[in-house]
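Entry type: protein chain
Record version: 2
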Amino acid sequence: DLIVHVRDITHPETILQKATVLSVLKNLNLPSHLLDSMVEVHNKVDLIERYKPTEENALAISALHGHGLEELKEEIEKKILTATGKKILTVNINLEGPQLSWLYKEATVQEVEVMPEDGTARVKVIISNSAFGRYRNLFPN
């Protein structure tokens, strides 16, 4: 669904390495949308003082120090959701009904926050548009 190209930005041949990787990927006859949505990651930015990527849409990280990893995670999540046609939603459910079981079967349940005082829960899911449509038809409330 997604290509993440991580480069050692401190390597003296980093630009040549990028060109080589892109050439290999193009020769694999991958779908163009996969190449167009590729995430470019510049690693080891902690070794270059005040590093700013000159390439459009490149993310600067230091895997060693954790710098930029949250932004990278968010970008990957956003692109995967777009590529797969899914979205992240939080739905309120009644725990006495079949909704939670249905969500576990038809979606990816990320979090369940139970409200014991009224027998409900807030459920955070990753779900396709079609599955969410089925959910709304089955559980209109």
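Comment: The longest strand covers residues 86-94.
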